[in-house]
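## retry 2 of 3
previous attempt timed out at serialization; input unchanged, resubmitting
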Amino acid sequence: MTCPACDGETSRALGAKNGFLLRDCDGCGALFVDPSASPDADPAALYAQGYAEEEAMPSLVAASLETLVRGCESFRRTGRWLDVGYGQGDLLAIASAHGWSCYGTEVAQAALARARQRGWTVAEDADADPRFVREGFDVVTMIELLEHVPRPRRFLRAAAAWLRPGGLLYVTTPNARSLNRRALGLGWSVVVPPEHLTLFSARALSAGLAEAGFGRVRLRTEGLNPYEILARLKRPGGRDGAGPAFNRNESAQQLAAALSGGTARRALKTGINRCLSLLRLGDTLKAWAVRDHARRGAA
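## retry succeeded, writing output
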């Protein structure tokens, strides 16, 4: 048994959740499901029927994705953008509006059908599809993907193979060493096997990117949802105990909206995120990584 985030062979058992045994890697600090002591988890089976209903993009999400797409403009050479695990397709919709040729991968059949109707090039398995050209993309994005797959480092190596030399990979994934994880333990709402199989630490993600062949890496940890800690303190069950379901997404949207109203609040949000990133305590890992011209990893 090895850690999916770093291949380390020493880890300690943390306990069980949803019938899955969770371990903490001694080497990199990642949290992962122990495959030898847990039921099988097939991501394709979990998500194949997802995204049946198309949902409107929240305005705050649209603004964030717009900023991301505009920030990638300097990397445009081939004009191709690949979003791995694109879900509803919100990011590709904005990239398309900015003139990018959009490619994506998904296992959800409804999401694949809608994307084809929009004229995007999509597939369940990019490796098996010749339309996905090796070293043919300027930008590859993996937003909230790595935590869902059994072999996450394989996806980092695949991203390096798809990107042209000098191309950009943008990754977001939950932070296993965040303040909320430290305070709430396995009770943190992000620890949800079998949906989430591996939670990276900043150290593990940095090492995985370097191993895959990425040179210039900028990594931040941002976001904190204090409502969840407060909710846990107000109900029985203890640090890792069960209790009424906590709606992480809804409360996060409420908090983001509250901190986006007015110059002073936006400045406060920026300051909080800078502190969280400096201390590596934010809930979300965000990485911008440029593919080396001489790639070290192999897909």
